[in-house]
Amino acid sequence: MNETKQLIEKIIEGIQEKKGKNIVIADLTDIEDTICNYFIICQGNSPSQVSAITDSVRDYVRKETGTKVVAIDGQRNAQWVAMDYSNIIVHIFLPEARHFYDLEHLWEDAKLESIPDLD
After folding, report:
1. CA distances (Å), 118 to each of 21, 26, 91, in order?
2. Which of 31, 37, 49, 62 is the Cys-Cys partner for 87 at CB 3.0 to 4.6 Å?
């Protein structure tokens, strides 16, 4: 398994660890001039859950792969947190912020893969 696929897998496990929902992987590799190759988009139901998902992804990915997040933005209000892993950016939203920004539609040329919720 290549490094990127493993990183995506571990990010998703970190999200699922804190019950993140509606996980979508947007594959941007066939789109020119993008800032990264993949978006991973998910949501939490409250600012505290968004923060918990952020912490879980950061800690789990570092423990499982040794990869450290390059930057994290949006933690103060925890409505939309972006985690930069160079060629992968993780977006953790509150539902209303996710609906408002609608990244899946914005990047509709991307190949989208939905990950079933763990319930």
Report:
1. 8, 19, 19
2. 37
Whether the per-residue pLDDT at 87 is higher than 90: the answer is: yes
- Please give the single-letter amino acid code of residue 28: L
- Nearest to 26, CA basis, from 87, 104, 106: 104
Q: Which segments within the chain are labelled E, that is strand?
A: 21-27, 38-43, 71-73, 80-84, 88-93, 111-115
Question: Would you place residue 1 in the very low, low, confident or very high pLDDT band (cuts 50, 70, 90)?
Answer: low
- Residue for token digits 């496990």? 13
How many H helices and E strands in the chain? Answer: 4, 6
- Single-letter residue type at 51: S
Whether the Cβ atoms of residue 44 and residue 79 lie closer than 8 Å to each other: no
